[in-house]
Amino acid sequence: MPPAPRTTGNPHDGTPRNPARCPPPATRARFRGGPEVTLADAVFGLLGVVCLGSAVLVVTTRNVIHAALWLVVCFGALAGCYLVLTAEFVAWVQVLIYIGAIVVLMLFGAMLTRAPIGRAQELDSHNRPVAALAGLATGGVLLVLVVAAFKGAYVDVHHTAVGDGKVIGTSLFRFFVLPFELASVLLLAALVGAVVLTRRDGGR
Amino acid sequence: MTQWAIHSAWLIPALPAAAAVIGLLLWRLIPGGPAVPAIAGSAASLVMAVLVLAEVERSPGQVHQSSVFWTPTGGIPLAIGTRIDGLAAVIAVMVGVVALLVQIYSTAYMAGDRRYSVYAAEVSLFTAAMLLVVVASDLFELLIGWEVMGLCSYLLIGHYWQSEGARAAAVKAFITTRIGDTGFLFGIFVLGVGTHSFEIGRVVADPAALGHSTITAGALLLLAGVVGKSAQFPLHVWLPDAMAGPTPISALIHAATMVAAGIYAVARVYPVFLAAPVALTVLGIVACITMLGAALAALADDDLKRVLAWSTVSQLAYMAGGLAVGGWTAGIYHLLTHAAFKALLFLAAGSVLRSVGTNLMSEMGGLRTRLPVTFVTALVGAAALAGLPPFAGAFSKDGILAAAHARGGALGNAVYVVGLVTVFVTAAYVTRLVARTFFGSYRGALPHVHESPLVMTVPLVVLAFFAIALGLPLLAHSYGISRWLDAPAGSRPLEVSVGSVLLTGAIALCGVAGVALLHRRRPAEDPVLVLGRYARPLAKAFWVDEFYDRTLVRPTRALARSVLNIDRRGVDATVVGTGTATTLLGSALRRAQNGNVQAYASGLVVGVLAIVVAVSLAVAR
Amino acid sequence: MHLSLALAVSALLFGIGVYGLLARRNAIAVLMAVELMLNAANLDLVAFDAWWRDQLHAGQSFALFVVVIAAAEVGVGLAIVLAVFRLRETVAVDSLTELADRDPVRAGGDVDAADEVAVGQ
Which of B73, B413, B427, B439 pairs as cysteine with B386 (C-beta 3.0–4.6 A)? Predict the structure, then answer.
């Protein structure tokens, strides 16, 4: 099946909306005279708050193990965000790989490097003020830029193509098969590299 | 034969120069050592000079000039050649005789010196330079010889360079004469440019045509060089200190030849000076001051050689005074006699020094029995110096005084009076010298004092003969010396009357008698002490040296030190400081590389943010 | 929903990640902060994919690739951290300062040959 032509991407470019899929007006709330605050907004906002909160805890808690666990919460919230954005496959991959593999790997690393369980020595370096400044500045600049650029942009969650397995699979193996193969080679290289790096001297 | 000699007169300076080069480079190949080329060179040059003199004697009044080649300079050309007249011939013979005797004397005096080859070569070179000055036909040629003489004087005074006194004395001599030589050079320029030629013949041909101010300026500038080279006031300070060199050098350079070169230069271009009476007046004033001052300083010095050095300064002032009042022949005659008796006195002093090992007269005494030949010859020299007839010095000195008296006027009378007083002082210090050295009892510590070897005493005898004989041509051949020296027009002829000779002789005898009586009364004491506290300024030579030190030497040294400090603290510090500053800057910048990855990452993030903000603002505008 | 909401969350998450990258001492904690930053980028990609209504789903595909690369990076990063731990008995990133430029005069015996050659004195 030939690929469908890409849309211009601007939801406000005049293509007719399907009125049957618009949610009933009773659930819409007004927000500054612009497009309304919908349920999707609220859920996403909540999940975003959880994500950000747990992220802050990740970078500030004194216990490395706790940080890893807060990272789990953060990734979980992000998975939820992906679901709201109808990216199902990515959401599950997030849970499986990030939470299931990467965080576990980090926990293993923390234990192998004898990370102190419980509160211990100072976990933050003396770079804190500069780091805080840099972090605030980065967040601030990005925030201002994107909000200024995309103030009125609106994602129509009812009319996107849902990113389920079939769709993503088709996309991957049709249009992005070469990057996919290269990614697998990359994984192989990383695997071999990690093994080599952690060998003890004396063996070949 | 003599015709050939005249035409080959250039050999006169060339032979000792060749001897110098050969002696310096090849003395190891010559059996007999460095003395052979040195003596041979001087002897050959003397033979040539005698032949030339014979030819001049045959045709008196004629000037033989030949130029070998021209050097085109783009402006006034320079010629190299010889100009032989009576004056040149006579002086050349004098130089040859003294140089030969000094070379022979040096073989014994400098025996055992490791650097005798260098010494002999330098003496030969010096002889060549002096002879070049004598026979030069061109003013620049004369200047070349003049400067080479200065160089050789420096080298020879500093022969014992291990001693700081010798080194300092050599530098002092060189610098002091250099100051005069600058004026001399400019004098040559003025005269040469005015005459459009540097040839001596052309310069003296018609000096009045140059214009009064030009000729006066040229003559005064030449006088600067004369004052320096002939150690007259105010540039006399180098000669007493130059006694740090070996005694034969003092005899050759600082008695007979180099210091006489200044007088010779005035005599050579005398018509120029006759056309510039101001210059002659200045010369006369300088001569008066120097004559008496140096004689007084000689009265108080304890060092035997320094007394003779002051004496040289005083006698040179006599010659200068003679030339200043127009007594050309008298001045040159005194130059000749002075060469004989002063060289004699210096060589005798060398003999004494070598035997007793000290320069100071307070450690000598009673040597007339132990050094008999030296004593007799020194006595002859002393008598000639004091001006006792019939020794040669009397007639030459008297000739000068007669010329001064005949000239009259302020200058003539001044020279006459000062000259007479100086006769008395001269006789006094000469008697003091002889008495302290040879009479009384021996005050030194050496157990044995021997007479010097024959090689040294024979030259003494030869010079003593000349000190007596040079008085004779005056008596025997009725002013024979005037016949040989063709005096320039406008100068006074040599007149010596019996009366004036007796007058000067009497004054001299008074001086001799006075000091002899003082010595007889107290043989062990220095006669000058009778002057009491007036002896001190005499001993310090009127503090001229100290004055120069205060006003010239110390400010120059302070300036040099301050320049050095500016260089060290200013310039060097700046240069080194740039290095230090760069290192410090590097240290400051090094703190950014502290190895902490997070520090690097912070810098990265902040930088990227700054760029992003800047670009956004620019795009938004 | 408003796109700017997702972008805002992503921006703030990125800022928090930057703070963690620059402030944390433990190497594992730094890696966690890096993961936060990568996730922020992922959120952006997915959000834009939803807004574009992209038929190719380039955004979500790229998000998957980012996950793959993040995994590989964490694996290799932890291997390095373990190697460093074996050598130094510590994983504090501010104690790993070999590449510092030390003053050869004042550092005493702590200067290696490369430093001395570089300074040239």
Answer: B427
- CB burial string B558-567: b at 16+ within 10 A, e below: eeeeeeeeee
Question: Which other chains touch chain C, taking contact as 3+ CB pairs less than 8 Å apart?
Answer: A, B
Q: pLDDT-derived band of residue B210, with 50, 70 and 90 as boundaries?
A: confident
B608 close to C121: Cβ distance less than 8 angstroms: no
Q: What are phi and psi of B78, to 5 degrees?
A: -110, 135
Chain CA centroid to CA B127, Å: 13
Q: How far apart are CA B616 and CA B605, in angstroms?
A: 16
For chains B and C, what is the number of CB pairs under 8 angstroms? 31
Domains (range + CATH), chain C: 3-88 (1.10.287.3510)
Domain spans, chain B = 158-541, 542-590, 596-621
Are A48 and C21 an interchain contact pair (Cβ–Cβ within 8 Å)? no
Of C32, C64, C86, nearest to A58 by CB-CB distance is C32
Please, what sign has the CA dihedral across residues A173, A177, A179, A185? positive
C111 close contact with A: CB closer than 8 A = no
B84's enclosing H/E stretch is strand B78-84
The alpha carbon of B152 is separated from its chain's Cα centroid by a whole number of angstroms, namely 11
Q: Chain A residue closest to B608 (CA)?
A: A138
CB-based contacts of A104, cutoff 8 Å, min separation 6 = none
Hey, what are A144's tokens? Answer: 């201002």
pLDDT tens per residue, range B575-584:
888 988 998 8
DSSP per residue, B297-363: HHHH--BHHHHHHHHHHHHHHHHHHHHHTT-HHHHHHHHHHHHHHHHHHHHHHHHHHHHH---BGGG
Q: Which residues of B288-300 are buried (b: 16+ CB within 10 A; e: fewer)?
A: bbbbbbbbbbbbb
Name the helix (H) or strand (E) containing A165: helix A165-175
> So what's the ipTM on this one?
0.83
Nearest residue to A94 (alpha-carbon basis) of A110, A105, A107, A83? A83
Residues 6+ apart with CB under 8 A from A191: C75
Whether A156 and A85 have beta carbons less than 8 Å apart is answered as: no
Tell me whether residues C93 and B590 touch, CB distance under 8 A. Answer: no
In sequence order, what are the beta bridge partners of B421?
Answer: none
Dihedrals phi, psi of B551, to nearest 5 degrees: -90, -25
Residue ranges of chain A with pLDDT lower than 70?
A: 1-35, 115-124, 160, 202-204
Rounded-to-integer distance, Cα B269 and Cα B283, Å: 14
Q: Tell me the CATH number of domain A36-119+128-158, given options 1.20.120.1200, 1.10.10.10, 3.10.20.120, 1.10.8.60.
A: 1.20.120.1200
pLDDT tens, position by position, C45-77: 999 999 988 788 899 999 999 999 999 999 999
Confidence (pTM): 0.69
Please report how many Cα atoms fall inside a 13 Å half-sphere around the Cα of residue B575, on the Cβ side: 6
pLDDT at A20: 46
Candidates C18, C21, C100; nearest CB to B593: C100
* Cα–Cα distance for residue pair B187/B265, rounded to 1 Å: 12
Separation CA B424–CA B487 (nearest Å)? 30
Using alpha carbons, list the distances in angstroms from residue B375 to B250, B379, B440, B469.
19, 6, 13, 19
Which residue ranges make up each domain of chain A? Answer: 36-119+128-158, 164-204
